[in-house]
Design goal:
- The structure is a homodimer.
- By secondary structure, chain A is of the alpha+beta class.
- Chain A folds into 3 domains: 149 residues, no CATH class; 378 residues, Rossmann fold; 224 residues, Jelly Rolls (Sandwich), CATH 2.60.120.
- Helix content of chain A is 25%, strand content 23%.
- The first copy, chain A, is built from 23 helices and 34 strands.
- In chain A, the strands form 8 sheets. Chain A has an 11-stranded mixed β-sheet with strand order 10-5-6-9-7-12-13-16-17-18-19, with helices on both faces.
- In chain A, helix 1 packs across helix 8, helix 10 packs antiparallel against helix 16 and helix 13 crosses helix 14.
- The longest helix of chain A has 22 residues.
- Chain A starts with 12 loop residues before the first helix and ends in a 5-residue tail after the last strand.
- At the A-B interface, helix 4 and helix 17 of A face helix 4 and helix 17 of B.
- Chains A, B: Belongs to the peptidase S15 family.
C-alpha cells in the first residue's frame, strides 16, 4: 500500500504538545513521569480504551512486538530509552500493519518510507521528540485508511469527551474537528421553508421540506455550521414514471432546417413573474413539530455529524411533502435550492408545518454554510454558488454538471450520459417528482405536473439537439463570475455519465474569479471517493471545512494542492499540480495518413478515406445489447473485424518517453457525407499492453470505516491494477455536421460536399507511458450515447486536412 | 410481489384487543371515542410518530388516498362507517404499496389477495372488527419486507417504550418479542472462559475470549436469554497464511494401496488426556474489566439485540486473545465451543482478564441459550448440539457442515467446496488461527501451531482421500442421537460450498431423535436469508426464539412448516411440506441407451460407451481459468463441442407433467478404466428453456431493513427470474473407483476390467416442469472440485448396467 496524505498540518513541537494536552494524551500524571519509557508506556496505555486494568493492558502489550525478539510488555519492563525502531515497530502495529506481511520488525523505517508514512528521524527520543513522534503518529493513516486518532475514535477514545462543556467544543486536533459529539443523541427536525416561487401555480408560495440533523449541544447554546445537501432524490424517486418517460434512441438522425441563429437569439432572459404574497407569521417558536427517523444519508455528511457540524437535506420543488414541480436545472430549481441557505442565514421564513403560520428560525447555526454532494446534488451546489448567495462559504461539488447541455447534448447532437441512453431532462424530472409517490398529493398535482413535463419534452428539443433558450437557462457557466464561495471540485476522469467537460469548463472559467478553488481528478467513473484506502480525502475535507466554516487557521488553502490527480498508470498514486492545462503551452500536433498519426511537421500521403455508418442488421442488434463489445470492436485492427469498415483508426508512433496529455484535445478536418445530414464521433485511445486500474474501486474491507463511534459505517475500497489490456479509451467527442460552427446554429449540409469542422474533445489528464501509442478513432454513431438509426450514411474525410492537437505538460513536474 | 408469511399467530379478537392495549394502540382515550371512524382516525394518528400536531398529521393524511377520489383527510371529515375498501386502500399505502403501480384504489382487495396478504372479510367494520383488522394489518408484511409494526418500529414507535419498567419487558406482540430495548445503550463486556482443554500444551487450561452484548436492563435485574454465535472468523482471519497453505489441485490422481479396512478400523476413539488444574479463583466480581467497540456482527443477532436477547460471540481456540490452536472440526474445537455455554449456564468459570484470578459469572442471563450462524458458525452450533449440553435450547444452523468429510472429500476423492479448489482442513486452520495476527502472541505460539498444522496436513491425507480416523473424529453425524436441542436448519439447494448432503444427512438422522426439527431449503448458494422480500424468515425466528428461550406459548412448533422449500420455477414462492423424501416411496427409475434415459421397464440396446478424460492442453488450461465455461460445455450436445467426447450424456423423454424430484438420486452401473485407478463424476441436469431464478438474491433496496430503531441496517433482496436458459445442473456426485464400496476401504482396480459401482448423488428438492428433460452426465475430472491431472484415462461403461433412481413426491401435496 502507498499512503497519500495531504491534510497533515505542519505543527511545531510546542503546539503539538499543547494539542496532546487538549485531547488528554498529556495529562498531569503523564507530565510527572520521570523517564521517557514511562511516558511512552502511558501514551500507549491510553491507546487501549477497551481495558481499564493493568492486567488487561499487559495482555494488549503482549500482543505487540517491540523488537524482533521482544514483545512490548517484556520490552517495557527493561526499557531505558525509546528509539525509533521500537516506536515505529509498535506504531505500525497500532496502525494495523502486520509484521512479516506488511513490514519487517528488523527494519520498520523501511516500511514507513515505502508506505509513505511521515516519521521523526531521531533515532533515540527525548521526551519532547517522543511527544512529537506520538503526535505525528496519531495523524498518520493506517492500513485501513484511518489515522490513528480516527482508529482510536472508532474504539471509543473520544466517548468521555461527549460530556465536555460547550465552551470546549468543537475540539480541533491538527487543524481538524474531532468526533466529540454523540451521534446517538442527534436532534432531528423537519421544517418547511417558504421559497420565493410558485412553480405549481396554486397561488401560494412553494413550501420546501427541510430535514435537519444537529448535535444536541445546539440545544444548550452551541452554534454550529451547516453542511447542506440539496438532493432531489432524497425523498424517494419514481422509477416507473421515469421509465415511462424514457426516449427511444433507435431513431434516425434527421436534417434540420438551417437557421441564422447567433448566441443572442438563444440567450435566456429572465422574465419577472408575479409572486403570491408571503404567508403571514402568527407565532414564532424554537421547537419543531415534526421529526424523521432516517434521512437518505451521505457518508461525508455523516462523518461531520460526529464532529460538530449540522447537516441539512432538502429535496426541493416537486418532492414529497414539498410544493412545486420538478423542472431539471432551471432557474426556479436554483431559487428553490438557495431558499434553504437564505433561511439558514436568517433571510427567509420557515414554518413548523404546512399550514404555515408558526415560524421557526435556524437559531442553532452560526450561519456558515457549505454545500456537499455528488452528481445532481453537486450540480445544485454549483447552481447555488453561481448566485453568489450570502452565507454559502464553500461548496464541495463532486461529479457535478456545470451546464445541462453538456450533460444531455453535444455540439448539436443528443448525447446521453453513459448507461442512460434515452434519458433527458423530462425523464429526470418525472423520476425526481416524488410528490407522485404520495397518492393523496399526486391526486391533486399530477395533471399540473404532466403539463410541465410536456413543456420540458417540447423545449429540450430532441429533434434538433440544438442549444436553445431552454438549455441556456440551464447553463450555470454563464454566472461563474458571480461565485463568492470557495470551491472544491471532485471529478472522475473516466466519468462518462457527467462528462469531464462539466468540471473542466467550470475550472477554466474560475481562473479569473477571486475565490479559492481546488480540483481533484480521480480515475473513477461517477463515484464518491470518501472511502479510498490511499487518499485522505475525508481528512482534507475536514481541514477545508474546519477552516471555511469554523475559521480555524490551519493553512487548508496552501496545504491542499490546487489540482490533485490520480495517476492512471499505477495504483495508489496521486500527484499535486499547480493547474490543469492552463499553465502549459506545449502540445503534440499530429497529421494523419493511412492508419497513422504522424507529427504535424511531416509530409504525408494525400488521399481521402471513407467509412460507412451502416451495420448489418444482426450486428447492429448485437451491439445494441453489448455496448462494450461494440467499443472493443471499434479499436480492433484486423480487416476481418466487424467494425473495421465502419470507422477510421490512426495510430501514432510509440511514445519515446512518458507524456502527460492534458486539457482539451482539438480536432479539425474536412468531411463529406452522402446525405443532407450527418454526425462524426471521435475517440482518443491509449494503445499498449499494460496493467490498468480497475474501472471501479475494489472492496478491501466491508464496513471498515466507522464515521464516528458506534455510528454509520462505510466500506474501505481502492482502485487496483487489473490484468493487462491492449488499449483504453482516453476521451471522446461528438459533432452534428450541421452544427460545425456553433451548437445553437444549424447550417445546411449538401450531400457529398466537403465541409470544414473543428471541435474539442472531452478534456483529459492522461499519463501515456513510453512505448504506448495514441490512437484516433473517427466514426459516426456512438452506440452508447447518440441516436442509433443505423442509416445508410457514408462519410469521406480528407486525410490531408485532419489535425489533432493535444496539450501536454512535463511528466516530471512533480 | 408475493408475500409468504408463516409467523402470524392466529389470535382471537379478545386477545388481539388486549395486545393492542399492551402496545398502546388502544388507550383509554381511544376506548372513549364513540364512532368507528373516530377510532380509526386515532389508530392512524398513532402511525405517524414523526408528527406531534394536528396540522402535521392532517398533512400526512392528505398524502394518502382513501378512495379513488378522496384523500384520507377529506374522507375522515365525512366518514360515518369504515369499510374494508378504505381500510385496505390506506393499509396498502401504509405498507408501502403504491396506488396505480402496485394496486388499484378501486379494488384494493384484489391486490391483498394477489400479494397474499391476510385480511378481514367484513365489508363494514364495527369497533371490534376494526381492532381486529388493525391488529392483523400491524402483523402484515409490506412492500419492503417488514410488517407494519416493524415499519413503525424503525420510525420510532417503540422509542417511548424504552423507559418501561423491567417488569413489562420483554414485550411480546403476536407471539414475537418487540424492539423495546435501546440498542444505543447496550452493555459490551469481554470475559475469558476457562475451557477444559490445553490444546497449546502450555500447562494452563485454554482461556477463551468472549464478547457479550446485553441490554442495559440487565444491569437493573432483567434476566435475558442468549444468542451465542461461535465464529472462528470473528477476531479476524489470516488470509496470507491460508493462501500459503493452499494445495495445488493440478496433480494426478494416483492408485492407492488396497487395504482391508472396515469402519471399525477407522472409528475415532476418544483418548483420555491429562488436563492442567483449574485456575484458582481469588475474587469474584459482577463487573467486567474489558469492553469492545465493534464486534463482527450478524444481522439476525442484531435484530434480537433490540428485542431483549443478549448476544455472545466467541471465536474459540486459536483466535486473537484466546489460547489454544485452531484444529478444524475436531473434538477439542467442540469442547471449546461448548465451554461458553457451560459458563452461561453456571457450570464453568470465566475470568475478567487473562491473569485469571478474578472470576465473573453470567449473572445477567436466564440460562436459556440458542446458537446461531452460517457455514463454519452453523457447523459449530451443530457440533455443540451433538454433545447434548444442558441449557442449549435450540440452534438455528444455516448452511452448516455435519461431517467434515462431506465438506472436503467424497467417496474416496478429494472434493473441494465450490470456488475453493485446493482448500482443506489445514488451510482453514491457518486462516482462522488469528493469534497469528497479533505479532507478540504469534512470536510465542507460532512454532507450536506450525507443528499442529503439519499434523493436520498429514492426517487429512490428500494422497488417498480415504475416510480415516481423522475424519471420523470430525463427523458430527455419529452423535446425532445425543441431541437435546430443538433445531432449525437452513440450507441452499444450490450450495456447492457446504453441499446439501450435509443438511440432508443430519435431517435424516434426526428423524428418530425426540426433538423438534424444522428445515428451510432455499434456492440460493451459500447465503443468509434474513433479508428476503418474500419470506418472513426473521419473524419466524422471532416466533421460534420467543418460544424456545422466553417460553412464550405462541404455537411456534405447529405454525412453522416442518420442511419449507423455495420453488425453483417461480419467484417468491415457498411451500410447506411434512417431510423431505422420508415420507415418499415413489420414484423415477431409468435405464440408459445411446444418449437416452429410458424408463427402467423398457428394453434397451446392449452396448458399451467410452470417453476419454484427457483434454488438449490448451483447452484444459482454458477451463482451469473458466470453470463455468467448462460446465456449460459439459452439457453441450453437438459433436463439435469440445467436451463432447469427454463425457457421456443421457437425456430422458420430456416430462409429461410437473414432478418433484426429492432426496438422494442413486446411480449404479459398471465401469472399466485403462489404468489401475480412476474416478467417476455424475451430474443430474434439468434440460428445458425456462426462466430460472437468479443465482443470488438481487438488491431491491439498499439499507431498507433497520433492525431496530436507529440501529444497524441490512439490504432488502430477493431472487428474481432471469432470462431463459436451456439447462440447469440439479445435483452432482463423485466416486473414486477404488472406494466403490466404502470411503474408508480402498480396493484394487485392474486396468480394463469392469467393476460394479453405486452411489448416492447430493440430495435434491427439484421441481421439474412438464416438458423438461432430466439429463444424466457421466464424466471424470470435475474441474471445480476434484484434482485435475489431465491424465490419459479412458473410461468404458456398460450401458446395460446403468440404473438411475430418483425419488419423487406428488407436486400437488401443497
Amino acid at each position: 500500500m502507498i499512503n497519500n496524505q495531504f491534510a497533515i498540518v505542519p505543527t511545531d513541537s510546542e503546539a503539538a504538545i499543547a494539542e496532546l494536552k487538549t485531547i488528554h494524551f498529556i495529562t498531569d500524571e503523564v507530565s510527572k513521569l520521570t523517564t521517557v519509557p514511562a511516558v511512552y508506556r502511558a501514551l500507549l496505555a491510553k491507546s487501549f480504551p477497551e481495558v481499564n486494568t493493568a492486567a488487561g493492558l499487559t495482555h494488549k502489550f503482549k500482543n505487540l512486538m517491540a523488537t524482533s525478539q521482544h514483545d512490548l510488555a517484556a520490552w517495557l519492563e527493561n526499557a531505558t530509552v525509546v528509539n525509533n525502531q521500537v516506536f515505529y515497530n509498535v506504531g505500525l502495529q497500532l496502525l494495523g500493519f502486520l509484521p512479516g506481511e506488511d513490514f519487517d520488525l528488523a527494519d520498520p523505517l523501511l516500511a514507513m518510507r515505502d508506505i509513505h508514512l511521515p516519521m521523526v528521524a531521531d533515532s533515540a527520543f527525548d521526551r519532547e521528540a517522543l511527544y512529537y513522534a506520538w503526535y505525528l503518529l496519531l495523524n498518520t493513516r493506517g492500513k485501513k485508511g484511518q489515522t490513528l486518532i480516527e482508529i482510536l475514535t472508532t474504539r471509543g477514545y473520544f466517548a468521555p469527551f461527549y460530556d465536555l462543556p460547550n465552551a470546549q467544543k468543537p475540539l480541533f486536533f491538527n487543524g481538524k474537528s474531532q468526533a466529540v459529539f454523540n451521534t446517538n443523541h442527534l436532534i432531528r427536525d423537519v421544517v418547511y421553508v417558504e421559497a420565493p416561487l410558485d412553480t405549481d401555480h396554486d397561488g401560494q408560495r412553494d413550501l420546501l421540506k427541510v430535514e435537519i440533523l444537529r448535535p444536541e449541544e445546539t440545544a444548550s447554546g452551541l452554534k454550529v455550521p451547516v453542511l447542506y445537501t440539496a438532493s432531489p432524490y432524497n425523498q424517494g424517486i419514481n422509477g416507473h414514471a421515469g421509465d415511462a418517460q424514457m426516449h427511444n434512441v433507435d431513431v434516425p438522425l434527421t436534417a434540420k432546417e438551417p437557421d441564422n441563429n447567433t448566441y443572442d437569439d438563444v440567450a435566456y432572459q429572465p422574465t419577472a413573474q408575479a409572486l403570491p404574497a408571503k404567508r403571514p407569521v402568527e407565532h414564532e417558536t424554537k421547537d419543531a413539530e415534526e421529526t424523521f427517523s432516517r434521512e437518505q444519508s451521505y457518508t461525508l455528511n455523516d462523518y461531520f455529524l460526529a464532529r460538530g457540524f449540522a447537516v441539512v437535506y432538502a429535496a426541493g420543488i416537486g418532492s414529497v411533502d414539498s410544493d412545486g414541480l420538478a423542472t431539471t436545472g432551471d432557474v426556479a430549481e436554483t431559487t428553490s435550492t438557495v431558499a434553504i441557505i437564505e433561511w439558514l442565514t436568517g433571510k427567509r421564513t420557515a414554518f413548523t408545518n404546512r399550514d404555515g403560520n408558526v415560524a421557526i428560525k435556524a437559531w442553532w447555526t452560526n450561519g456558515s454554510v457549505a454545500m456537499t454532494g455528488r452528481s445532481y446534488l453537486g450540480t445544485l451546489a454549483t447552481a447555488a454558488a453561481t448566485t453568489g448567495v450570502d452565507g454559502l462559504k464553500t461548496i464541495i461539488s463532486e461529479a457535478a454538471i456545470s451546464s445541462w447541455y453538456d450533460y444531455y447534448r453535444d455540439n448539436g447532437l443528443v448525447v446521453a450520459p453513459d448507461t442512460f441512453q434515452g434519458e433527458d431532462t423530462d425523464v429526470l424530472a418525472a423520476e425526481v417528482f416524488s410528490r407522485s409517490l404520495k397518492a393523496g398529493d399526486a391526486h391533486r398535482i399530477q395533471p399540473v405536473f404532466d403539463q410541465k413535463l410536456a413543456e420540458l419534452t417540447r423545449d429540450q428539443d430532441r429533434t434538433t439537439g440544438n442549444y436553445n433558450r431552454f438549455w441556456d437557462e440551464r447553463n450555470y457557466l454563464k454566472n461563474v463570475d458571480k461565485i463568492k464561495a470557495d470551491i472544491v471540485m471532485v471529478h472522475g476522469l473516466n466519468d462518462w455519465n457527467v462528462k469531464p467537460r462539466n468540471v473542466a469548463n467550470l475550472w477554466d472559467k474560475l481562473q479569473n474569479v477571486p475565490v479559492t478553488k481546488k480540483l481533484i481528478l480521480h480515475q473513477g467513473q461517477h463515484i464518491y471517493i470518501n472511502n479510498l484506502q490511499s487518499l485522505d480525502f475525508t481528512d482534507m475535507m475536514n481541514l477545508w471545512l474546519s477552516h471555511k466554516l469554523y475559521d480555524v487557521d490551519n493553512h487548508a488553502e496552501s496545504l491542499l494542492p490546487n489540482v490533485l490527480v490520480q495517476d492512471n498508470t499505477a495504483a495508489q498514486t496521486w500527484h499535486g499540480y499547480d493547474n490543469w492545462w492552463q499553465d502549459t503551452d506545449q502540445a503534440l500536433d499530429f497529421k494523419v495518413q493511412y492508419k497513422e498519426l504522424v507529427p504535424a511537421d511531416h509530409d504525408v500521403d494525400q488521399r481521402a478515406a471513407h467509412f460507412s455508418d451502416h451495420l448489418p442488421d444482426k450486428l447492429f442488434d448485437h451491439y445494441r445489447h453489448h455496448l462494450d463489445a461494440w467499443q472493443a470492436d471499434l479499436f480492433s485492427e484486423h480487416k476481418s473485424d466487424p467494425m473495421y469498415d465502419h470507422r477510421l483508426l490512426f495510430k501514432s508512433w510509440q511514445a519515446p518517453h512518458d507524456q502527460l496529455l492534458v486539457g482539451r484535445p482539438h480536432i479539425k478536418g474536412s468531411v463529406a457525407v452522402n446525405q443532407n445530414h450527418g454526425m462524426l464521433s471521435f475517440m482518443l485511445v491509449d494503445f499498449g499492453m499494460a496493467k490498468r486500474l480497475t474501472v471501479s474501486p475494489q472492496m478491501i474491507a466491508s464496513k471498515a470505516l466507522d464515521l464516528g463511534y458506534h455510528w454509520r459505517e462505510d466500506d474501505l475500497k481502492d482502485f487496483k491494477l487489473a490484468p493487462a489490456t491492449p488499449f483504453k479509451m482516453i476521451t471522446k467527442g461528438h459533432l452534428n455536421l450541421q452544427n460545425r460552427h456553433h451548437p445553437w446554429h444549424a447550417e445546411a449540409v449538401q450531400p457529398n460536399e466537403f465541409y470544414d469542422f473543428e471541435l474539442d474533445l472531452q478534456p483529459i489528464f492522461h499519463h501515456l507511458l513510453a512505448g504506448h501509442q495514441i490512437g484516433l478513432v473517427i466514426y459516426a454513431t456512438d452506440m452508447k450515447m447518440t441516436v442509433r438509426g443505423n442509416q445508410n450514411l457514408q462519410y469521406s474525410l480528407n486525410l490531408n486536412d485532419i489535425r489533432l492537437h493535444v496539450p501536454v505538460k512535463p511528466v516530471d513536474q512533480n
